[in-house]
Design a protein that fits this description.
binds iron/sulfur cluster; 8 helices; Lambda Exonuclease, Chain A; 214 residues
């Protein structure tokens, strides 16, 4: 199935959603819902470090080095996919191609949510500039290394499906139940979510279910 087969319905009547929410959705749908439906945004060590990593990329501007124009904090949007946000860096190369770069915490490693967020930026750039965007990179702050990402059909299809789920989640205005797992330990919404207390198989949930069993 190609990415075009999975296009979300018309975005004309929808509020555009932040590109960064895609990353949250793929990390945990409850996390994305708590942010967008309930409006929570808590900071922890990981988000604070993330904010610092993004600080220098948040200042809009451009510079030219070796024939490559580096556009910083470039606004990006897509009417087709109902998204908006910004690209940390977009390289405009001598052949006219565009190459988005997203800054992330940690060492060089592969995360599906980072790749999908970057791919969504590429979808925005393609719509804005009407040119194909075939590659980008994640810059890992701790190891100061880049990992190149190809925007192949499979990644485009996964990203488009995540965009569709994100719009569906926001439309439903519902918050999925918690499911405690390893990723919860690094989640900045842990104290709000209380996954051990509110999870589908938590003691509190089991007791509540038993209370109404006959
Ligand atoms: S604490 Fe866990 S279940 Fe709750 S929002 Fe974060 S990742 Fe999701």
């Amino acid at each position: 199935m190609s990415a075009n087969d999975q296009l979300p319905p018309s975005t004309e009547e929808r509020e555009p959603l932040p590109l960064s929410l895609l990353n949250d959705l793929l990390y945990c749908e409850r996390r994305a819902a708590l942010k967008t439906v309930e409006g929570y945004r808590s900071a922890n060590e990981h988000t604070n470090r993330g904010d610092i990593v993004h600080e220098h990329a948040d200042l809009a501007g451009f510079e030219v080095a070796k024939g490559v124009t580096l556009l910083r904090a470039l606004p990006a949007w897509s009417r087709k996919f109902g998204l908006n946000g910004k690209c940390d860096i977009v390289e405009r190369r001598p052949d006219g191609s565009l190459f988005p770069v997203e800054f992330k915490l940690g060492k060089r490693r592969k995360w599906e949510n980072d790749d999908a967020q970057l791919c969504a930026q590429a979808l925005c750039l393609e719509e804005m500039f009407e040119i194909p965007v075939r590659h980008g990179a994640i810059f890992h702050a701790d190891s100061k290394r880049r990992r190149e990402v190809e925007f192949h059909e499979e990644l485009r299809a996964r990203t488009t499906e995540a965009i569709r789920r994100l719009h569906e989640l926001v439309r439903s205005s519902s918050v999925p139940p918690a499911e405690y797992r390893d990723a919860c330990q690094e989640c900045s919404l842990f104290e709000v979510c209380l996954p051990k207390a509110t999870g589908t198989e938590s003691r509190a949930t089991r007791l509540a279910r038993q209370l109404f069993e006959t």
